[in-house]
């Protein structure tokens, strides 16, 4: 084990696309960093800003919200709502001084296992230079 | 100028005709210059009414209480409630109507224009007077207020003691009303988002240091939540729904209790509370500045709302409180909403 900082990522993946995409990455034996804790939610539109804040509060270094591509949502328009909401959450977190790279959003379909691995790889690379997230973490 | 006599006449008329249940306005306080909210039930009581830049409260909050009271009454009085509103308060009513919390028929709105002034910020005033007590404030002059204290009279330029949200106000007259008093004077601020510019230009670390210092002051009295006309949820997400833990409460039941944020005023919990509050206000806040006015520890809460107000205008071309027929911001979308930040 090296002493290098390994970020912890919480990923909220929608059941119908992104979660299936991560499954595909798994069954295809694609390699990607083990830093991510995937949490399946029914829809990216169901991700409350409180989920994101709670993840940061309980020690996540980065949070990923991932849903179906626009137009592909199982519930027709859940990801459109998510897009508006996450955009605002990103802006307000930036405003209070959290690094903007720590909250990311992506569209990953059930067929895009490789996009999932790429997204996680890039995310981990971006978080490494930032160091641990302590600003919203509890007990500090 | 809004003629006070016109206001009194109008209220007296609608009370006599029995058009309204009661009227919510402002009345003079005996011991200090700042006005207080007033509830007028009898036509002869209208003499109490007043209107001047010390009428700081956003009376739309009382419509939330009124709705709750009405829901608990067995035979509710179906007549509307009369209310007196400034520009920002009228926008708050518009949002309540937009979200179908109240119906337009439930309120009889008398709109008063702020014209060239706005409301006085009590904190700024007491700073200006070096903590001396103001006994009387005269509003006769155009750009000055004449403040009387123990030491005599003092001329204060109105710009120095008007509330920040008034200095940045774009629409200082009501946008929804049954009766309108005063003049619509267009007064454009140089930059409606000036107050947040300074913080936006800081680095993430500096931003965090600024906010940590501010937010650590929070004692979680929830005054900002209590005063906000938009905070009308029956159950607030920061309150634990079931609080009681008895001897019979099993570990399983305890584990099931969702506590999003603890009550203890520590840094992380305070951040969660204020961020959640700000996000809930996105596209709904009408910038009446009440949250900041009531804060006992002077946290610049309004800046969080202002930041989101700015983003909402820039990203989604949406302004709260101007159109009650438009769908609310976060329960609508456009296919062309910006998505450059998404991978």
Write a structural description.
The complex is a heterodimer of chains A (140) and B (343). Chain A has 140 residues and is of the alpha/beta class. Chain A has a single domain (9-130), classed as Lumazine/riboflavin synthase (Rossmann fold, 3-Layer(aba) Sandwich). Chain A has helices spanning 18-27, 49-57, 78-95, 113-127; strands at 9-14, 36-41, 62-67, 103-107. The longest helix of chain A has 18 residues, at 78-95. The radius of gyration of chain A is 15 Å and the shape is globular. The mean pLDDT of chain A is 94. Chain B folds into two domains: 4-121 and 162-331, no CATH class; 124-161, no CATH class. Chain B contains 13 helices and eight strands. Chain B has a five-stranded mixed β-sheet with strand order 2-1-3-4-8, with helices on both faces. In chain B, helix 3 (87-98) links the parallel strand 3 (81-85) and strand 4 (107-112). In chain B, helix 11 packs across helix 13. The model of chain B has no long low-confidence stretch (mean pLDDT 90). Chain A binds chain B through residues 49-50, 53-54, 57, 70, 77, 80-81, 83-85, 87-100, 104-107, 119, 122, 135-140, and chain B through 196, 199-200, 202, 204-212, 237, 260, 266-269, 271-272, 275-276, 278-279, 282, 304, 307-308, 311-312, 315-316, 329-331, 333, 335, 337-339, 341-343.
What would a concise description of this structure say?
The complex is a heterodimer of chains A (140) and B (343). Chain A is 37% helix and 16% strand.
Topology:
The complex is a heterodimer of chains A (140) and B (343).
Chain A lengths: L8 E6 L3 H10 L8 E6 L7 H9 L4 E6 L10 H18 L7 E5 L5 H15 L13
Parallel strand pairs in A: 1-2, 1-3, 3-4
Helix pairs in contact in A: 1-4
Chain B lengths: L3 H13 L6 E5 L8 E5 L19 H13 L8 E5 L1 H12 L8 E6 L9 H7 L7 E3 L5 E6 L2 E6 H4 L2 H4 L11 E3 L12 H7 L3 H12 L7 H5 L23 H6 L10 H14 L9 H5 L6 H16 L27
Parallel strand pairs in B: 1-3, 3-4, 4-8
Antiparallel strand pairs in B: 1-2, 5-6, 6-7
């Amino acid at each position: 084990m090296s002493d290098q900082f390994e970020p912890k990522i919480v990923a909220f993946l929608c059941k119908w696309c992104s979660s299936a995409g991560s499954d595909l990455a798994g069954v295809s034996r694609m390699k990607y960093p083990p830093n991510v804790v995937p949490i399946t939610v029914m829809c990216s539109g169901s991700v409350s800003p409180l989920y994101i804040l709670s993840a940061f509060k309980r020690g996540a270094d980065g949070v990923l919200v991932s849903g179906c591509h626009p137009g592909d949502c199982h519930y027709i328009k859940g990801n459109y709502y998510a897009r508006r909401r996450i955009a605002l959450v990103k802006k307000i977190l930036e405003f209070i001084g959290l690094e903007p790279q720590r909250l990311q959003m992506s569209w990953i379909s059930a067929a895009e296992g490789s996009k999932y691995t790429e997204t996680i790889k890039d995310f981990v690379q971006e978080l490494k230079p930032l160091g641990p997230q302590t600003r919203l973490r509890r007990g500090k | 100028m809004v003629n006070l006599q016109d206001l009194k006449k109008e209220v007296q008329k609608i009370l006599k005709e029995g058009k309204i249940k009661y009227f919510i306005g402002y009345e003079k306080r005996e011991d200090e210059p700042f006005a207080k909210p007033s509830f007028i039930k009898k036509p002869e009581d209208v003499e109490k009414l007043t209107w001047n830049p010390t009428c700081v409260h956003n009376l739309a909050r009382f419509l939330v209480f009124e709705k709750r009271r009405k829901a608990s009454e067995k035979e509710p009085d179906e007549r509307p409630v009369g209310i007196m509103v400034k520009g920002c308060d009228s926008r708050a009513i518009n949002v309540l109507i937009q979200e179908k919390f109240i119906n337009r028929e439930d309120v009889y709105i008398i709109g008063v224009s702020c014209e060239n002034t706005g409301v006085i910020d009590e904190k700024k005033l007491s700073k200006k007077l070096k903590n001396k007590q103001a006994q009387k404030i005269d509003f006769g002059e155009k750009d000055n207020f004449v403040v009387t204290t123990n030491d005599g009279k003092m001329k204060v330029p109105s710009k120095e003691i008007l509330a920040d949200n008034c200095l940045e106000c774009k629409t200082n007259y009501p946008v929804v009303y049954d009766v309108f008093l005063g003049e619509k004077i267009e007064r454009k601020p140089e930059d409606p988002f000036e107050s947040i510019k300074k913080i936006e230009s800081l680095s993430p670390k500096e931003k965090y240091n600024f906010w940590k210092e501010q937010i650590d002051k929070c004692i979680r009295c929830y005054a900002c939540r209590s005063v906000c006309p938009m905070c009308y949820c029956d159950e607030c997400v920061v309150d634990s729904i079931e609080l009681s833990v008895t001897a019979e409460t099993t570990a399983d039941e305890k584990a099931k209790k969702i506590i999003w944020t603890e009550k203890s005023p520590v840094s992380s919990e305070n951040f969660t509370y204020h961020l959640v509050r700000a996000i809930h206000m996105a596209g709904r806040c009408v910038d009446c500045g009440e949250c900041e006015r009531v804060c006992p520890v002077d946290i610049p809460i309004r800046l969080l709302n202002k930041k989101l107000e700015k983003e909402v205008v820039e990203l989604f071309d949406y302004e709260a409180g101007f159109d009650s027929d438009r769908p609310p911001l976060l329960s609508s979308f456009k296919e062309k909403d910006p998505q450059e930040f998404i991978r």
